[in-house]
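Case study: DUF4170 domain-containing protein.
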Amino acid sequence: MSKLHLVMGGRVKNPQTLEFEDLSSIELVGVYPDYSSAENAWRGAAQRTVDDAEMRYVIVHLHRLLEPDLPSG
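Here is what the predicted structure looks like once written out:
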């Protein structure tokens, strides 16, 4: 399986957590084939909202969710 990385984000209830305020307004930035591409997309999205402490973007390792028994390396 390819390594898939999802970049997503939205407004969180508390800047120290990942509990999103409104799941219907989550921004799906994209799915990327490698971590480097995902990190570039994450960085761009996060920098657009750098002055808003309640906006949070994350990289989700989809390949780990789809096949959790595979080694992470």
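For the exam, be able to explain this: The first helix runs from residue 35 to 48.
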